[in-house]
User: What shape does this take?
Amino acid sequence: MKLPIIARSLLVTCFLAEAVARGQATPTDQAAATPDFSKGAEGVAARLRELVRSLSDEAAFADLETEVATDTHRAAECWDETGRLLGRNLRTTALDSLTASWQALRSDLEDVEGRVEARARRRDADLATLTGMHDSWTRSLDLARKSDAPPAVLEHVQSTVVTIDQTRPQIEQSRARVLVLQDAVTRAIQTCDDALARVGDARREAIKRVFTPQEAAVWQQRGAGTQRGFAGRLALAANVTTKLDRLRTYVTAYRGALVATVVIILALMIALRRARSRVEDGQPMISIYRSPYAAAILIGLLISRPLRPNPPFEFQQIMLVIVMTAAVSVFRPILETRLAAAVYVCGAVLVVNIATNLLEPTPGLEQLLLIVEMGVTAGVLVWAAAQFAETKALGAGASVLRRVARRLAHVLAFVCGMSGGAAALGYLDLSDFLGVGLFYALLVAFGLLAVRITLDDLVTIGLAHGPFARLRTITRNLTAIDRRTRRALDVLTIGVWIWIVLGRFQLLEPTRDLVRGTLDTRLRAGQLDLPISAVLAFVVVVVGVFAVTRLVGTILDEDVYSRMTLPRGVPYALSTLTRYTLLLVGFLLALATLGLDLTRITVLVSAVGLGLGFGLQQIMNNFVSGLILLFERPVQVGDSIQMGDLSGDVLRIGIRSSTVRTSQGAEVIVPNSKMIEEKVTNWTLSDRRRRIELDIGVKGDVDAERIIAILSEAARRDPRVSQTPPPEALLVRFGDDGSDFQLRFWTDDPHWTRLRSDLSIALQRTLRAMRMDGTDGSTAHAQTS
Assistant: This one.
């Protein structure tokens, strides 16, 4: 590639284009102006070098081609294997294994498809860049010819066009290779979709065969085992090899995810072990501390579940064994010996069933295994039901729960017994579908209950010792939060169990279709036409907004304002404005979930504005007045105010009105506009201090200085009287019939009326004692200001 020629040609071409546009270019001017376009030439040269370098990743492209070839070959082999397996009338569990395998392969192909499409987009962008450069240089060549440019300039421009044309085939060749990969990946994904469709059809056929016998009765199979023994051993070896290859392929593909899972579990084990060592003697030992390693396994597998998408059936069975082992370890400290034995027996049956599913023995052997499994399970359930009457594992006073568990165990035992009988009669699919399905449902419930207990313990630890323990919102509402968290975990656990059980009994898709059809049902009322899903979403948004608003308000009051120094009334104003804002946002979100036309909302807003201009003036006035009260804060919640003949304490400042509680206990609703427009006496605006004046009348000729000293001393002795400024007693009138005094003092006690009464009583007692000593005196009424 002649990069110097390209640079020089670009300089000349840019100059020629500018000269033709101006109509005044001369060779001398060209020579003088050429250096001005050097930066543009460097940019084009760099771009061409970049395009050439983008084609040099041959090693990465070869690896991608190898990966595509491997995946397409896997798809072809799996297609042939699926055809052979579907010809054997597989059961639903085996079909689930096939579905999981095809889904995992499709997920891998989608990842490869994304990388291939990214490379294809880069090649398309490179071709578009070359096309633009070619068109630009071609126009420059035409301009040079029309302007009678020197032959050297024409040669440079022509060489640049040739260079661009020489680069295009390389990119087009790379693009063609990418197209081949795209076609291969697309066909492989289509193969996956076709295979999943075939497996789905086979699953529906398998459900139809549930009530059809697959084998003869046990007592009618003499000699059949020897006839199929050698063929069965060959099929068993082939099945084991196929399953091992499938498991090895999945482990290889998700090797990093499995390593991350192990790391997470080990980290949780160390953390829980250290947390257990910090538990003080005498403190209750919760389940997660009794079995820290098992709890770490359950939590780690739950957290890392997104790292292991679409696991094959064999991998699922291995994970089920690990989970059940950890669940038994979690329950072991709280289970009694009798019930623990039943759990161990069920675990042994689980291992046998998993081995049966993985090895796929001959039908005769499978029939015997099903009879044994269902019979043992039925016997264990009957025995466990008898133990529920005496066990205390469910807690003291849980008689109702024990009675329900006993009846449920009897029902499950009856179903398992019937399934064993069906297997003996040759109805293997019915026995596997019903009996083994219920057995798995029971074990899954056991595992999910262990996970639920572990999560509950984690929440308890987090609320008591984690970072949330520093929040006052948590500490003051710990009981309510713990109760609601447990309810949420219960609902989540039951929901997951129902989802797994529906999938096990092939009812998940029909349930989805039923729910989807119900949600798509439309409600029509006049011009209103909404689906039920939109109505439910509206309700959920409204409830969620109110819950969030309440939560935010609680956090602000408990953990934000309490840690800040704010003027009185500011926290209430901020909380109110925050509540209004959240409710407004929630209202808009709720309308959006209904899918209402924005033009209709605009018309509605216009109509509301017109109504505000005519009939809602007073309401709008009160609303704005409420905002003024919140911002300006002339009156705050808790203030003692007086408006005309109304006096009391402000309880709340709402959107339209405020509530004032009088001293008689009445709650008076006052429009906010009245609080702004009328004269309001606020006794506690800047502070809660108020001055109290007591008028005392003393009969006869008395020593005024002594009376003043007595009044002042009585006020100073009361701790509720503020000493700054000090109490003051004054002589306001004297005459032959007696003298009038006035005691003035300040207090910040909100119960100032009680203080005035108590002080009046004390002064009356003191003056009466003086009269008995020969000084005639009496107390009079008291006034405040």
Summary: The longest strand covers residues 690-699.
